[in-house]
Amino acid sequence: xxxxxxxxxxxxxxxxxxxxxxxxxxxxxxxxxxxxxxxxxxxxxxxxxxxxxxxxxxxxxxxxxxxxxxxxxxxxxxxxxxxxxxxxxxxxxxxxxxxxxxxxxxxxxxxxxxxxxxxxxxxxxxxxxxxxxxxxxxxxxxxxxxxxxxxxxxxxxxxxxxxxxxxxxxxxxxxxxxxxxxxxxxxxxxxxxxxxxxxxxxxxxxxxxxxxxxxxxxxxxxxxxxxxxxxxxxxxxxxxxxxxxxxxxxxxxxxxxxxxxxxxxxxxxxxxxxxxxxxxxxxxxxxxxxxxxxxxxxxxxxxxxxxxxxxxxxxxxxxxxxxxxxxxxxxxxxxxxxxxxxxxxxxxxxxxxxxxxxxxxxxxxxxxxx
Amino acid sequence: xxxxxxxxxxxxxxxxxxxxxxxxxxxxxxxxxxxxxxxxxxxxxxxxxxxxxxxxxxxxxxxxxxxxxxxxxxxxxxxxxxxxxxxxxxxxxxxxxxxxxxxxxxxxxxxxxxxxxxxxxxxxxxxxxxxxxxxxxxxxxxxxxxxxxxxxxxxxxxxxxxxxxxxxxxxxxxxxxxxxxxxxxxxxxxxxxxxxxxxxxxxxxxxxxxxxxxxxxxxxxxxxxxxxxxxxxxxxxxxxxxxxxxxxxxxxxxxxxxxxxxxxxxxxxxxxxxxxxxxxxxxxxxxxxxxxxxxxxxxxxxxxxxxxxxxxxxxxxxxxxxxxxxxxxxxxxxxxxxxxxxxxxxxxxxxxxxxxxxxxxxxxxxxxxx
Lengths: 370, 370
Fold this sequence. Notes:
six-stranded antiparallel β-barrel, eight-stranded parallel beta sheet, 24% strand
């Protein structure tokens, strides 16, 4: 295999999927996996409850690609732009139940203008449950105003959704349980407010990988979304959601040089392969741009990627560690565990799928773009 | 056009190319443009002295793609891994004068083992002129040892090369002139040492965008490499190499929401479009993840991308600025100037080429990968 390339340990991925499915099933809630991490129809089929879905996507290209693969129940979970409504309508005319999200009256007006007797676009109102990014804050009068405009204007008001993006920011079970309950209670509160105003709200959708794994009670929630858990990564390990041995994705790379007096090993994986994600820089253990394992997947103590250029990665022992630099000659293959699996995977067009013996058993295509 | 997408202002790019070509021509030195930034045969043809080259690449995929487009004189400027030599040999059998680089005896042994009477692989020895990354330090006895092994083992010792990567780290003409002279003098010194040892060294290759623009004397150098200058970017502006008006590349994005009480505008360009490059965070003016312009390309004062998620960018006024947040309604198109053009362009498969009137006059494909 030419390096750098992307390796996927199938048994780890399948274990990650089973674990979350069992957990959500025990809580009596539906599962709508987020496919933005994988962007692969092969992986989508392992994630989704059925070949037809449901699923969540982050781009209309994902919706189009998965629709071409037979998926029929899709949530496009990024606030809708008016200039994207024609692609939404085309997918719906093609038989896909594509649902969109929004958080403003401006967007609601644009959606209503695109609806007619043959075309009622389904909409979830986005709720801001943690101040992380988008959504209407619970208690804001805009919720009812937007809901009413959609319902009376000819759209299908299908419910509410929220994403606890701030659950990535701290670590530990107590924090994550609190975040999960905050996500649930804010979404359910908004759903109840809509219903109290005489508006429909059949769907209450929540989710992030940390909260999906730490929720203890999901009363009032109808479905959970999560994406990065399929591969896991060093950021999720730092948050406390997974073990290093759960990380199913790595970049295979070749040693191309040394600066021995500096303790550097140079490899052929730079930011075009690893991404520039530094999510672990804010965590208790800074993993640089990735943690180094041997070709069989065993971590070399504290060897990390200290810096990246376009096609070069520089490996060194983590600052403050007493570990010795391993002797890795030119041509040695190493595996690099990613900080952020979504960001790393996005640089590759193919997964080399490893079976339990470490042999490549399949190559699964991956797409990117919009 | 669906957003996010990549815009390229052709007249700015052509002005950037002409400026550097004229400068190097005045210094009496050859030009071997680095195509890793553009990864487009259309742009390669505007950059190279002739359709056959010469050029520099950072991956063998670039070499293969440009060879398919008729380029015949290619320098692969990342230290060679032994497992890549079969692809090097295949390109050379196809009639491409592909030259490789290395900085160790281990690599030299692998190259010599791949050479035979019909196949003398040309090699430049990489010199570390500034402690930035790879290469043999001037004065290290390894230089002659590696050179002799290549020359006597049946490879073609073609010369030396260096890249002043540390020239990105500080700003200002005085610093950049010093860096250019350091790059030149170290490369020329090593070339002279090889020649004094009775070894051939016809090529002395140097380059980085900052040093290529600030070199005042290139005696002893045969060719200069530079890449990012073709588009320029905010990091190069911060270093002092270009004006904002020289930046030819931007990402077109759509406003999809607001968090008005926080002063945030949300757009549909996240790290999948902009990259996570934060090169300006170490500079006098921190541009966040990009500087915002209107659709015609005029910057809105101090409006920058303060944070990115996968498909969301959050715009806000730069910290410390007194500027007012512009009122940009949902659906408004904005252009985002990139911190690092190489990293941003790498997320797109096409350039939308704008003529001087701002009309899209062409779509040029772009590749990525290895």
